């Protein structure tokens, strides 16, 4: 039996200082560690990635895009925590995915745009101050990721009324909410371990 900890990538589609989705990503990362995964918890703010423009790309793919491609490729399981803007995911998330999925001309290592995504098991979470918890963003994000050959975990969780959902220390107030996040993390790790063979 393979006892190597499964690499799990966790990131949120917000860079806001007091972002609910960043807080939820931190909870998911903790739960991943408790479940025995080797967690990489990324902040997209740590990546210097401009707005996608093919002319800009023709001058050279930014170093941080290549760094993110490598990180994505190295993790068989991901948790993506998506804010909802106007019923969909954020421009930050889309821009990041667009760059990471763009092939690098002249680099045989990255000639396939889907390489960082293909075969990854992705669990989706969202958080919003609203009653639906950003659920609609996930209904847009799932087909986008499937188009890139990701396996989207059937379990998802949208945290509603996020303004009241966290303690000052960043823990989830409600146990059922924590159990739902735990369920998504566990399912991603379960499937990712099997996909690793
Ligand atoms: C929002 N927000 C929002 N919330 C929601 O539940 N459904 C929506 O469609 C929208 N639309 C929307 C559009 C725009 C342009 C903004 C700026 C915001 C509110 C949003 O969920 C809220 O600002 C969250 O706090 C954003 O996530 P973070 O940054 O807290 O992770």
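Q: What amino acid sequence fits the structure above?
A:
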């Amino acid at each position: 039996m393979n006892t190597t900890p499964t690499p799990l990538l966790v990131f949120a589609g917000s860079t806001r200082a007091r972002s609910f989705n960043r807080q939820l990503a931190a909870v998911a990362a903790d739960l991943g560690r408790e479940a025995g995964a080797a967690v990489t918890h990324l902040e997209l703010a740590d990546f210097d990635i401009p707005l996608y423009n093919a002319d800009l790309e023709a001058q050279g793919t930014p170093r941080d895009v290549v760094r993110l491609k490598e990180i994505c490729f190295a993790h068989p399981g991901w948790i993506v925590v998506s804010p909802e803007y106007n019923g969909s995911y954020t421009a930050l998330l889309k821009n990041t995915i667009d760059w990471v999925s763009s092939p690098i001309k002249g680099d045989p290592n990255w000639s396939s745009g889907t390489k960082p995504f293909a075969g990854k098991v992705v669990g989706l979470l969202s958080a919003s101050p609203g009653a639906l918890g950003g659920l609609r963003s996930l209904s847009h994000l799932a087909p986008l990721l499937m188009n890139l050959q990701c396996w989207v975990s059937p379990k998802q969780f949208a945290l509603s009324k996020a303004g009241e959902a966290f303690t000052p220390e960043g823990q989830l107030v409600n146990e059922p909410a924590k159990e739902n996040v735990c369920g998504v993390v566990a399912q991603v790790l379960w499937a990712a371990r099997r996909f690793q063979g």
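Q: And what stands out in the fold?
A: The beta strands are 7-12, 38-41, 77-82, 121-127, 151-159.
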